């Protein structure tokens, strides 16, 4: 047996930033800021944390950037192998389970990364799956992770789940919010997080995944600077919205 | 056939830890054994080190600079070391951190270069490919808890596109129009950003050189592990050029007038 | 102990155990016994002993031998018993469980005792709470009984469910007749 050697090297660091995702009835929104930092230094103002995996799944990664990039690379590789074997894209619930096994495979030397997977389920509903670094996961309606999780999640709980709010007499809260309500919430979450957290800022990338023939398409084209990233317009469709955040 | 019962898989009685001994019961080790494992030395701290590397994008390509010093702790040990290394026809890498690890990286890249050349397949490695290769190597080594203790900048121009990116001992990567490693990230980066951001496509080579020279000077004034002798690499569509060593003109006369800076005793 | 990793350990290895129970069923044309299933898990976690797995589990079921409950934790401990509670709030749950348990509980009584025990843990333990899931395993398999909000149980009770006494588990018991807004019966008549 090798005797334990004194190790001064720390293989991890924390690169700041925040991600979030919200599921609607027939859409899913996945967003992340683009700042990458270490300590008080901004390494770059543009390092994407949100990645399109398939036409109906988009993954946001946050934590140790090197692990995050490597993890996305390996997930994409597995999805490509799946495409070669089965001639179709892997469904999102299967991607979620795949991510669990991939993360847990590194249980004793984890990827120091928080993952949020957003997209469209096979039944056409919007989905958000959130993971911890070693692979425990859950399907939810909304989740924030990363440096400003503690600022953003309570805001989302209040605005999406209506926590600590009482409906007006004779009314009830909606189960799912429409896209035109969700998008401003996402933008507001990040402008606020930018104000109060030094590791959040520079830029914002919002991915919107729409189910087949989603009604949310109306009005989406009107949004300034929106860009479609899917080639086919007859299936699920993915759009990117980019916004500037404060750089200080 | 392995005749040692302890190697047959889960042991039966002899090796079985009947009393659940704390903390780890021993499982048989069946892998190859390295008799010299205790003698293998891993980089646990850098010894002979280089300090900052800085680089910017400008109109015609990338400009990168690093001084010629390799320190041994606080001792200025080697004062004519080149820390900028050309790879292929379109790329330069600049290294801070452990210089022996950097030399190893140079041999890796030379091997890669030769392999690529020998293939004679009409392809050549550009800065993006070299950066990807380096980041995979660096990440793989950190994952073995045996890092190559460097911060590297990779800059180049290929097919009309400028490329500038960073990779370090953790495998962390990023890219921006101005980059600086080590002390430079704190001292030079703010200067570079104000001078370059938004002007990447208009800065001339002369202007870029001024910016670089100024940053190297500021670094030399404040970084105790730096030297007033440095080299500048320019990578443009015409290829790589690494300058001869340049000397920084510095002036210290201002120190006389400042209390606590010069030779005053009171 | 209440860190994130134990969630992943439980989620992953219980899924894994579920897969192997199903494989047993396919290979042997019969369901795995509770004892065998729990032993599968305990042997598994024992092979990782000392490496930092953190799980506490109870494997409950009905096989040829009748009802059975096994406790398995990440130290490799495996115990058969008829009453267990596990986790950071287990001591609070045991308090309620022990005072209410007897071997011939009716279905409704047993469900109520389980509900009330988890309520106690959720109420007093900072790391337990939010809601409680209740399952009942009998000869013909498991049945999901319901999901109960801990705060709701405190103030209003679990709702109109068999076995529940009606009313909240906590709040009313403590404040009934203790304020002028809600005067005690004696004061009200006087």
UniProtKB/TrEMBL annotation, chain A:
Principal location listed in the UniProt entry: cytoplasm
Biological process according to GO: proteolysis involved in protein catabolic process
UniProt entry keywords in alphabetical sequence: Cytoplasm, Nucleus, Proteasome
PROSITE patterns: PROTEASOME_BETA_1, PROTEASOME_BETA_2
Pfam assignment, any one: Proteasome
Cellular component aspect of the GO annotation: cytoplasm; nucleus; proteasome core complex, beta-subunit complex
Function: Component of the proteasome, a multicatalytic proteinase complex which is characterized by its ability to cleave peptides with Arg, Phe, Tyr, Leu, and Glu adjacent to the leaving group at neutral or slightly basic pH. The proteasome has an ATP-dependent proteolytic activity.
Family from the record: Belongs to the peptidase T1B family.
PANTHER family the record matches: METALLOPROTEASE TLDD, PROTEASOME SUBUNIT BETA TYPE-1
Name of the protein this chain belongs to: Proteasome subunit beta
Species of provenance: Hebeloma cylindrosporum
Source species taxonomy: Eukaryota, Fungi, Dikarya, Basidiomycota, Agaricomycotina
TrEMBL record, chain B:
SUPFAM superfamilies: N-terminal nucleophile aminohydrolases (Ntn hydrolases)
GO cellular component, as recorded: cytoplasm; nucleus; proteasome core complex, beta-subunit complex
Main localization (coarse): cytoplasm
First and last residue of the signal peptide: none
Pfam assignment, any one: Proteasome
Keyword field contains Cytoplasm: yes
Subcellular location as annotated: Cytoplasm; Nucleus
Function: Non-catalytic component of the proteasome.
PANTHER family: METALLOPROTEASE TLDD (PTHR32194), PROTEASOME SUBUNIT BETA (PTHR32194:SF6)
Family from the record: Belongs to the peptidase T1B family.
Name of the protein in question: Proteasome subunit beta
The species this protein was found in: Hebeloma cylindrosporum
High-level lineage: Eukaryota, Fungi, Dikarya, Basidiomycota, Agaricomycotina
TrEMBL record, chain C:
SUPFAM superfamilies: N-terminal nucleophile aminohydrolases (Ntn hydrolases) (SSF56235)
InterPro entries in alphabetical order: Ntn_hydrolases_N, Proteasome_sua/b, Proteasome_suB-type
GO CC field: cytoplasm; proteasome core complex
GO process terms (BP): proteolysis involved in protein catabolic process
Signal peptide residues on this chain, from the entry's feature table: none
Record bears the keyword Membrane: no
UniProt keyword annotation of Cell inner membrane present: no
Protein name, entry field: Proteasome endopeptidase complex
Organism: Hebeloma cylindrosporum
